[in-house]
């Protein structure tokens, strides 16, 4: 039997691009804070030199009240950092499989673009005014792209078509007025939308939909296994349906969530077994997740249903209400075996719909726990699925055979 050949993406060896990124940061004297996720303490550091008369001020400061000043903030957009860290970790399986230091043998080139990280920093500096850009184009985007275009021959060979970058926020590349500099490249985005609306810019077959980061898993680093058993807690779930999120005062005719959340807060919330609210402390939320059978993931401003990742990580069956959504890795993942899709027009019938599929519940829950969880960033397999999508785009038929705990993904 012939062994499947290793498929290697990425050239511009990633370490040279890390250097590139650092050089640029120095050159431009930007202060782009990339959070070190393991240093999460929000305790203020006391750096004053104590003097005998200052003793009354030498007690710990109270916690910061404004959550946006805490770094890292409730950040669900840091997929770009997580994916970069996972692939660039030397000696990791992913790095050994997919990264080459020889650009000549690379199929694709990774642009280490951290635009959302820059913009978060900008918004934190500006009281969370999300219309601010802090010159992201001139200070960050243009120098980065010029460096790649001027110093390496690979961009010009295809005008960037074999380069890729990550856009993890709602508006994809729309934050950047110079986006035409990189628009020819492949995007990894957290929103997949087949509605073909004028204002949404998902480019089907030119983008790859990736999972989102979520605060509870990727900022607070809560470990689901501390809340559910190894088997995913099949029978200890007494909450029928859970939802935590915006906005209790949405009206049925509002554009936000196309009114879906109006039904959630004004209809489902009053029914037995439902636990619905706008926010929860992370620990409290984790406990609720462990007790819930189903979790609602309605659309918001976009079809990004970020909550799906925390549901999956805790073994909760997601109810997706987002007509037109493309979930990540649909070509390799049988989403319908794990989730319940409800049309917007059926939102008011959700309770009945769940009652009518009660026997299917255990099957879906088991699929979520056994298969769904491998799609969550924390479990380290996301790049395998991304690469399979790259292979389809590039028409590469000899791929890595991926074996994830007994589920084998053969070449396409
Ligand atoms: C993050 O912080 C931890 C603990 O201080 C350290 O071991 C690790 O190397 C840091 N990671 C990065 C990427 O700086
Ligand atoms: C945010 O403020 C800090 C401190 O003034 C500054 O160094 C940094 O460059 C600002 N970030 C952006 C994106 O403008
Ligand atoms: C947000 O920033 C924009 C652009 O600088 C400005 O026009 C607007 O007034 C700001 N909004 C608030 C609430 O400060
Ligand atoms: C790529 O093309 C641009 C535009 O023509 C040019 O300015 C640049 O020098 C070229 N890059 C390389 C490495 O030759
Ligand atoms: C929703 O509609 C009610 C009644 O028409 C109105 O009083 C309320 O202000 C509206 N709420 C929002 C958020 O628009």
UniProtKB/TrEMBL annotation:
Outline the segment boundaries, as ranges, of region: Disordered.
39-58
Q: Which domain of life is it from?
A: Eukaryota
Instruction: List the residue ranges forming a coiled coil, or say none.
Output: none
Q: Where is the Exostosin GT47 domain?
A: 77-356
InterPro entries attached here?
Exostosin, Exostosin_GT47
Q: Which GO terms describe its molecular function?
A: glycosyltransferase activity
- Name this polypeptide is given: 13446_t:CDS:1
List the lineage, top down: Eukaryota, Fungi, Fungi incertae sedis, Mucoromycota, Glomeromycotina
